[in-house]
Amino acid sequence: MFALGIPRPFKYVRVKTLEEALDALEEGRPLAGGQSLLPMLRLRIPFESLVDINELDLDFIRREGNTYTIGALTRHNEIASNVPLLRGVAITIADLQVRNRGTIGGSLANADPSANYYPALIVLGAEVKAVSKKGSRRIKVKELYDNPYTTTLREGELITEVSVKEPRDAKLYFKVIKKGGSAYPIAVLALLKESNGKLHASIGGVFPKPILLEGESKEELVKSIEGYNEKPLSDHHMTGEGRIKLVKDLINTFDEDYREIHLIEGRKINWKTGIGVMATGEIKIRVKVNGKLIEDTVEPRTLLLDFLRRNGFVEVKRGCDEGKCGACTVILNGVSVKSCLVLAIQAVGLDIKTIRGLDASHLTRSFVRNYASQCGYCTHGFLMVSYDYLKNVDPEASDETLRYSVKNICRCTGYINIIRAIKEAGKDEISG
Ligand SMILES: Cc1cc2nc3c(=O)[nH]c(=O)nc-3n(C[C@H](O)[C@H](O)[C@H](O)COP(=O)(O)OP(=O)(O)OC[C@H]3O[C@@H](n4cnc5c(N)ncnc54)[C@H](O)[C@@H]3O)c2cc1C
Ligand code: FES
Ligand code: FES
Q1: What's the pLDDT score for residue 430?
Q2: Contacts of residue 196, Cβ cutoff 8 Å, sequence gap at least 6
């Protein structure tokens, strides 16, 4: 097993009902998509017990009148596909793989100052339902965020749903600035423009808390930002001054060249297995890879990436080891995920495929034809995410959907040939 960044040991419980979850949460922490929690585990932050809530019936989207109620376990890609109001917010999160696992409830509970949902949900006046053994309560999203990585949730409380109203006489504009790849944004702007011209803006990534500003014009909002009495965030990505300048530009141009994103509606991602699991130490698991059951002894902290490589699936590569490069991507239950951001024990009951178990000759042929690989280290990961993208997102590989989806890193070939190969493979697939 890889020596650095191995999570500390913890107890793993996969619960099947909300009651079981609330009992287990008395001593544990919820594990939803794991797309923030797994990187935290890799930093060796100690957690005694993780309560995997992925079996709960919290993956739903309901619409009544102009109100959407979204289950906490709804994945970012499902929101992008099925909630037009939040499409631009969800599709600009990370990349296809992170969006297949990451959930709206996990994102809000994680309270990253640069997270996509906070500014949009604040400006829309959304609220969450939080449930514990003591009962349930509703919390405005604006009041849920306390400080970076801290919320006002109480011990043992679980977010179960988010409710958000589609505004009747106003339009939501959403923009993010990123530094490339699947990184978090540096600045996020959600701006609601009422038909009478009044503007409500919420800004993330610039101050320790997402802020809400109101005004009659862009100039008024820019002035409020200049006079805002809080020290801006500053890190190796950008200085505080740079962030303020960026967000002022975002406000000044929010309605210029603003394009709605089009996606196929009705997308559903299924992570349910019907199987409860509990492990404190070593446990023998059987996982289906490329159609065969592979048996191995793992600990709860063993990553799916390590499980696959030590069982001979060495086409799955270790790259950045922090969830960014995509070299470790595999197909899990029909969609792409980063195997360094999934625990091996979570794959019990799910179906894993690498290139050896997929009919993806249209892709491999196109990669060879277009010289889309040099050393080949990143190629398997690219094939995996491209397979998911062409099959489940956009067989026509439009520039618009491609740039939000395939964000793996290649250190030698560059991206022109890879993009060409994906587009050609899409055409091959469509023409049969
Ligand atoms: C490479 C990369 C790039 C990313 N880029 C972006 C980006 O551009 N924009 C963005 O917004 N996000 C980004 N993310 C984060 C991503 O959106 C995560 O999905 C999200 O932050 C956490 O959701 P999760 O379901 O994975 O939660 P988990 O990782 O499972 O959990 C996160 C935290 O929330 C708690 N938790 C989870 N569910 C609940 C619940 N229902 N109730 C109470 N507590 C709960 C957990 O205990 C944990 O503390 C990125 C992540 C990665 C790895
Ligand atoms: S994303 Fe998993 S190794 Fe880089
Ligand atoms: S071909 Fe070498 S890293 Fe991509």
Answers
A1: 61
A2: 169
* Ligand 1 centroid – CA 37 distance (Å): 7
Residue 252, Cβ neighbours under 10 Å: how many? 13
DSSP string, 283-348: EEEEEEETTEEEEEEE-TT-BHHHHHHHTT-TTSPP-SSSSSS-TTEEEETTEEEEGGGSBGGGGT
pLDDT at 2: 45
167 Cβ inside 6 Å of ligand 1: no
Q: Which residue has the tokens 């996509």?
A: 116
Span from the CA of 206 to the centroid of ligand 3 (angstroms):
34
Q: Cα of 408 to ligand 2 centre, how many Å?
A: 9
CA distance 140 to 373: 48
Is residue 117 helix, strand or coil? helix
Nearest ligand atom owner, CA of 98: 1
Q: Is the CB of 325 under 6 A from ligand 1?
A: no
* Nearest CA-CA partner of 320 in 388, 410, 248, 396: 410
CA 35–ligand 1 middle distance (angstroms): 5
- pLDDT below 70 — which residues of the chain? 1-4, 430-432
Task: Please give the number of the atom of ligand 2 that sits closest to the Cα of 324.
Answer: 1
Give the per-residue pLDDT at 101: 98
User: What pLDDT score does 182 carry?
Assistant: 82
Judge contact between 189 and 218, C-beta under 8 A.
no
pLDDT tens digits, one per residue of 282-308: 999 999 999 999 999 999 999 999 999
Q: According to the model, what pLDDT value does residue 432 have?
A: 53
What's the pLDDT at 3? Answer: 46
Mutate-to-test residue for ligand 1 from 10, 14, 37, 95, highest number of ligand atoms within 8 A of CB: 37
DSSP codes joined into one string, 63-82: EETTEEEEETT-BHHHHHHH
- How far, in Å, from the CA of 178 to the mean position of ligand 3? 23
Domains, in order of start, for the chain = 11-54+272-355 (3.10.20.30), 61-252 (3.30.465.10), 359-431 (1.10.150.120)
Rounded distance between C-alpha atoms, residue 203 and residue 211, angstroms:
5
- Ligand with the closest atom to the CA of 181: 1
